[in-house]
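Subject: sequence -> structure tokens, single chain

Hey, anyone have a minute? Need the predicted structure for the following. Not urgent.
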Amino acid sequence: MQHGLSIAQRNACLGCHAIDRKLVGPSFQQVASRYKGNAQAEAMLERKVKDGGSGVWGMIPMPAHPAMSDADIRTVVEWVLAGAPSK
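Reply:
Had a minute. Here:
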């Protein structure tokens, strides 16, 4: 799971998101809590990271990340949905 954190750091995710508190966007733990038990969450969040979007967590849009590989996006999303563990 540490790999998810390192990918998030390399792609500036921590500029808007923190693990356990709201910054510009929701914390990773808030995201995990909101989507816990949602079978569609992984696919939906992968699209959100790739394409960006707005309106789910407030008015500030999440930028698209078209340069991130699908594998890196999947790893980060799995890490976030697992509660963004630091170990």
